[in-house]
Amino acid sequence: MSVWVLVVDVCVCATLAFLLLRRYGDLAKQQRMVLLATLLAWCLCFIIVFTIPLDVSTTIYNQCVIDNHRVISTTASRSNQTDNSSVFPTQSVSKVCHKPWSYIPDGVLPIFWRVVYWTSQSLTWLLIPFMQSYARSGAFSISGKIKTALIENAIYYGTYLFIFCSLLIYVAISPQWHLSWYNLRTIGITAANTWGLFLLVLLLGYGLVEIPRSYWLASCHGHLLAKTYFKVAKLMTEKAEAEENLEDVMEDVRGVNESIKYNHPLRKCIDTILKKCPLEYQEKLGRNMDDYEDFDDERNSCPSKKSLVKLHKQVIYAVQRHNRTQVQWQILLDEAFHLEDVAKNETSSAHQFIHSFPSVQPSRWISKYIYTPTAGTHPPTLQHLTPPGASR
């Protein structure tokens, strides 16, 4: 095999990332730049995972070839040094190197890993944080959004700059090191890796304990249902706060919408804010607006552009928070109803899983032919295990 193995690997990773993006994202409503950055970031994550086995197999084969070459060279050297009258020359058995099907030619992987590494660095430290701050910015111009994004990322970039300066001072005072472009690049890579390893340790410290424990406790439906009830109560409070916050922000929008009429210079800013509001609020604000009422400086107290920028940012945050809590609320309710149905059907004499709230969505083929209502009454053996300290 040639470099086509790597090409197929990249294509598979790109396809997998696209399917996940299509599953969890709304492709029609998102901008192309956002979709491209997200697709590239997810694709790079999969590429790293799927390419490491290819790199390992290629490295093992190359190391085997190098070892055989050393054995042959050593044998030839010893044969030249022995006496011509020697009957039994020195010989050494070399290993048989089997070329793997995933072998990649020399020189391809180093270039490939450099492209993956520096693209990931650019996305992590430059593009994605900048795009997040740019999208949350309340400014109405491109230059204003860029300025706001740079200011908001000052702390994020400051941590990286602090690590970089610390390593730079260490290199400057160390006698065995000399400042050069190669050393500066090495310091930058080390600083980025230090930050990444710090986050990795935190995530592994949580994930290595929480993820296995959550799967183990998921076998106990009673514990899982009680935990879901707790999550529902907590999310209900967050949902109420999000709705109340959205109502307050929409009230402020209604005030500035009534104070700034269509002939005012800042009316374009108001129209931009209204586009970010939910549809039901846009209809209410549109009905309450008098198109033919002229603006009067003495009668109306108009807000400044700075206050409109702040209001615009509040609208973006309030709408995102409201939408997020609504989606989380629906998902959590479906999970709670499903666990309640499981608890009811465990004590039911009917050998068929009965849903309290049947789904309005069309059934998939796996629900029709494999995981049928009759099969749903026979859970896996893992679900009959009771974790220590948990009550059913």
UniProtKB/TrEMBL annotation:
GO terms for biological process: adrenergic receptor signaling pathway. One of its GO terms (cellular component) is membrane. It is a multi-pass membrane protein. Residues 232-259 form a coiled coil. It comes from the Eukaryota. It holds the Pfam family LMBR1. It is found in: Membrane. Keywords: Coiled coil, Membrane, Transmembrane, Transmembrane helix. The chain crosses the membrane at residues 6-21, 33-52, 111-134, 154-173, 185-209. Belongs to the LIMR family. This is LMBR1 domain containing 2a. It comes from Astyanax mexicanus (Blind cave fish).
